[in-house]
Q: What sequence folds into this?
């Protein structure tokens, strides 16, 4: 499976597959806005839409940050995952593999993708967490908590103007604004850092002499966005998932509840 740093490319590939699935079942002109992320006029929607997040081996001793699966996260109160058209898309994209005894959705990068970013993986769609697969349990991301820490770095909503000591304050202000944008209360404390508080999660930026593959892979629309990890604390427990920032629909800015002892 790909490294967590490829999650945005992996999520984009999964979204492209969903769009092609609607084409294949004859609904290419009727793709729900919540799936496509685009309004009827073709412009990016301002409404909440489907986020595709990585479920990774993080937060455990010896975790190495590789991706074990993906989760489709619809907006709160959306029933898109229950709609027959969506399930038909999944059945179309994931034919039955008789040797494995389950449906398999194969995701591949486009031809010409640099070898360090190329992947071909098979995923088995399911609406229930697989038994015995702790890292694939959504509860790691959804349970109520006052404190959350990033598994994947936040891509800033706006380019930063400040330098030096003022830069973390500007990042924190953007994170507070990002919470308000998705109707979360403003955190009472925000700490930004290059490193994650979650074991196994890669830093936002590698050291200067690190090879290129150790950087987070970002689509062109996010390539110039500053990245940061963060820990945020709310006055009262809230339910996850918490996903913030410009890359939230492609798996960036994904938080996980952080227990006080962690």
A:
């Amino acid at each position: 499976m790909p490294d967590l740093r490829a999650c945005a490319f992996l999520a984009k590939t999964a979204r492209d597959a969903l769009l092609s699935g609607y084409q294949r079942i004859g609904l290419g002109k009727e793709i729900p806005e919540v799936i496509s992320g685009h309004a009827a006029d073709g412009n990016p929607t301002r409404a909440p839409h489907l986020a595709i997040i990585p479920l990774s081996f993080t937060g455990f001793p010896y975790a190495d940050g590789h991706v074990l699966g993906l989760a489709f996260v619809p907006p709160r109160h959306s029933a898109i995952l229950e709609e027959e058209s969506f399930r038909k898309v999944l059945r179309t994209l994931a034919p039955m593999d008789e040797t494995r005894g389950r449906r398999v959705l194969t995701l591949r990068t486009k031809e010409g993708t640099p070898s360090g970013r190329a992947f071909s993986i098979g995923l088995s769609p399911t609406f229930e967490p697989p038994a015995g697969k702790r890292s694939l349990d959504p509860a790691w991301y959804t349970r109520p908590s006052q404190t959350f820490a990033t598994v994947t770095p936040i891509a800033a909503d706006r380019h930063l103007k400040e330098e030096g000591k003022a830069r973390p304050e500007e990042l924190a202000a953007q994170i507070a604004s990002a919470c308000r944008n998705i109707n979360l209360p403003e955190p009472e404390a925000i700490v930004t850092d290059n490193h994650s508080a979650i074991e196994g999660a890669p830093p936002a930026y590698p050291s200067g002499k690190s090879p290129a593959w150790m950087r987070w892979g970002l689509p062109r629309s996010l390539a110039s966005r500053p990245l940061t990890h963060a820990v945020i604390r709310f006055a009262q427990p809230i339910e996850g998932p918490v996903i913030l920032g410009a890359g939230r629909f492609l798996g960036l800015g994904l938080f996980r509840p952080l227990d006080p002892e962690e």
User: Anything to note?
Assistant: Residues 4-136 form one domain. The two ends are 27 Å apart (CA to CA). The mean pLDDT is 92.
